[in-house]
Amino acid sequence: MNKPKALVLPPARRLDSVCPREVRELIENYFDAEFNKTGGDLSKEEQDALLADKESVFTSWGSPILDAESLAKAPALKYVGHAAGTVKGRVPFEAFTRGVRVFSAAGRIADSVADWCFAAIASMLRLFPTFDGDLHGGAVWGRGDLRGMELTGMKIGVVSLSSTARALIPLLAPFRCDIAAYDPYAGPALAEKLGVRLAPLEEVMSQPVVSVHLPQLPATKGILTKELLARIPDGGLFVNSSRASVLDEDALVAELVSGRIRAALDVFNVEPLPLDHPLRKLPNVLLTPHVAGATVQSYQALMRCVVEDIINAIEGRPTRYEIDPARWEILA
Question: Across residues 289-304, what is the average pLDDT?
């Protein structure tokens, strides 16, 4: 029986970070696979020349874009597996109309981002960065009048029930948090399944902890306005691991400069964050350099997710990481 033909686009230096040896062996055993052996990223022309007889294509960061022109040169193509985050901008919607099934490991990255969110919420509530800074800065001991807060029973507002939020909520479950969620696309069945209550955005932004998981879409640009940020209670915590474009960053900076609230931020309007940015000088902000999804485990799982899922699709089994074209417009 002939093996299905596949093209693996990442060069060795990229492939090694997202595809451990056993997954490469799986690809080699199941597929008649052609690997990128150029030592660098293929040009679009080089990629297109290899597509004609391929049924599956595996991509990752740095791989050429599969645009309409590329698809026209790939009449046999049935599956695209992206071992990275969003496929928007990498695969056109036209792929679905051609009968191509598209898979993305973004759901696996969401697990890692949720892990970051949980750690950020827990550490900021207990003021770990503050106490750590005091002791590293030469303080003799703790401040007697400064106390952290417990996660157990905390009221939390979740903005968007995206894949990251759906991974975070089970992590919070043992702490019996009261979670209010805003998502105009979510229905009561999903809310009940997650154990949250749906609420207007104004109410969600009024919780003492607000965690943002919005996709970057035209409809979400600047949706968290100055007025909504002002609803966060004094002493509250604002967590953003999605995109800075969804909020008025200047308004958030003003709230943080006032000392009224605290924040944990992994994303910024300008990245890398400029050295003279006011956020760098604030003690009430936990800053990380857009690494919420970057863990050893997540990177090593990315190619496995899409390879195993495409094999499931070929063999008629259910899939987990397949993109639903009906949700394309609200996909991050």
Answer: 97
End-to-end CA distance of the chain: 39
3-class state of residue 321 by DSSP: coil
Q: Are 306 and 71 in contact (CB under 8 A)?
A: no
Chain centroid offset of residue 145 CA: 37
Give the pLDDT band of residue 144 (cuts 50, 70, 90).
confident
- Residue 169, judged by CB atoms within 10 A of its CB (0-12, 13-18, 19+), counts as buried
Residues facing residue 224 across a β-bridge: 247
Query: For residue 281, what are the contacts with CB-CB under 8 A and spacing of at least 6?
Result: none
**3-state DSSP call for residue 11?**
coil
3-state secondary structure of 101: strand
SS3 track for 166-234: HHHHHHHHHHCCEEEEECCCCCHHHHHHHCCEECCHHHHCCCCEEEECCCCCHHHCCCECHHHHCCCCC
pLDDT tens for each residue of 16-59: 999 999 999 999 999 999 999 999 999 999 999 999 999 999 99
Residue 1, pLDDT above cutoff 80: no
Beta strand 197-198 with 101-104 is unpaired
- In this predicted model, what pLDDT tens digit does every residue of 309-318 receive, in sequence order? 999 999 999 9
Q: Residue 4: its pLDDT value, please? A: 98
Q: What is the mean pLDDT of residues 196-213?
A: 98
State the Cα–Cα distance between residues 125 and 131, nearest whole angstrom. 12
| Fold that domain 5-104+296-330 belongs to in CATH | Rossmann fold (3.40.50)
* Mean per-residue pLDDT over the chain, rounded: 96
CATH of 109-287, one of 3.20.20.70, 3.30.300.30, 1.10.860.10, 3.40.50.720: 3.40.50.720
Torsion of CA 172, 173, 179, 185, to 10 degrees: 90
Q: Measured at the alpha carbon of residue 265, what is the angle toward residues 263 and 266, in degrees to the nearest 5?
A: 165
